[in-house]
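Request: Could I get any protein with tokenized structure?
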Amino acid sequence: MLITRPEPQAGRLAAALRAEGARVVVSPLMRPVFLTVTLPEGDFATVILTSEAGAMAAARLPGLPRRALCVGERTAEVARAGGFDARSLGSTAAEMLPALAAEPGPFLYLRGREASVDVAAALRARGKEAASAVVYAQEPAPLSGEAQNLLKSAGIVTIPLYSARSARLFLAACPPDAAADLRPVVIAPPVLEALPEALRAKAVVAERPDGPAMQAAILRVIRSLAP
């Protein structure tokens, strides 16, 4: 198993999979960088956070409303640790949007530079008052030597991929003389589409685009490969 997620997500996933007997190599292909930002002006009532990195970035910023609506319970936990009155409102940004209709605004969406969904723009399209600020970036990182050696060795390597960007970064970082039999596990169809046809044919797609479903899919693959 090669885990390329950023930390701290990579470490949690690795611990869960090692408990299942998997041999795990961790080599994050992205690392969070918190940006110096000037927040938009406005009397905001609610912060929207769609990732743990966004919640960690929010804890560093002064003057924010204490009310936070989050994608996923893990993001909400990180936000609460940072001093916010936070709760989860869906497991994906797309799932969160309809639920926001009943929530008080104006909203301030604190996002990453490479966010796949602009929640603030979607809210404005629905007649809500919302602004956004880019507060962190996930900067690319190289594969470790251990990860490269794993990919150069013959044998099956399962690679969980949580976004189309992570899939593209992995393909770019994969050594040209890789000999491993790669078995991708992807969180959603758009990630599958980022893979070449040969890998798409071997890939497993999670039943839902969230962390628990992704981990369940990974475990199914591990157990199917067990001797």
